[in-house]
TrEMBL record:
Name assigned to this protein: Fumarylpyruvate hydrolase
Domain Fumarylacetoacetase-like C-terminal span(s) in chain numbering: 29-231
Classification via Gene3D superfamilies: Fumarylacetoacetase-like, C-terminal domain (3.90.850.10)
Source organism, top-level taxon: Bacteria
Upper classification of the organism: Bacteria, Pseudomonadati, Pseudomonadota, Alphaproteobacteria, Hyphomicrobiales
Amino acid sequence: MSQSYLWAPPAPVSLPVRGRPERAAVNRIFCVGRNYAAHAAEMGHQAVEKSGGDRPFYFIKSPQALAPSGATVPYPPGTKSFHHEMELVVVVGAAGFRVAAGEADRLVYGYACGLDMTRRDLQLAAREKGRPWDLGKDFENAAVVSEIFPAPGVILESGAIQLAVNGEIRQKSDLGKLIWGVREIIADLSLFYHLAPGDLIFTGTPEGVGPVNPGDRLDGAIEGVGTIALTIGPAEA
């Protein structure tokens, strides 16, 4: 007997995969905060000290926050400080719980370029009051992701990452500067969640984050992974 619903369930959320006709269904979107020392500094924080017992910290974006590369998205409501954050995205392709760092490669299906778009004023206001960041981080079109580059079992440890706004380079760094690398992130996150195929992990942004305005064009790239693009449209009336 088929199940009936009061209203239609949400449509599946998915991403294109380079070289394959199938799309990849998206499950959850995890994000690592302050994972480049220079970005932590520009946000007014000291870099974490692994030897001091620090560990990564996370926030989550809803699958409904996903937007495809190449989209034009409206300037979001409730903010006057809409910021870009260019990131490497890990695409999980196998289930795992309490995974050792040395075995993290078996969970990697591939990678993508991501833009963790942020309502910075709302994030900072919440931070100052010790409140959750949801209004600043989890909203429609806040997780922009490129097509997936399949690389099963491959752990990226270096590679140029950059973002330009209207042709001007804003962010430029290397994946080798991640405080917590791909193996460490997967191992740590799997202590708290049963990771599953379709989970996306935004690994953190380098320094150079800043505001964008209606009409701006964003173009990013990660060496060996691909490119991403976004246009900021006017605010909704």
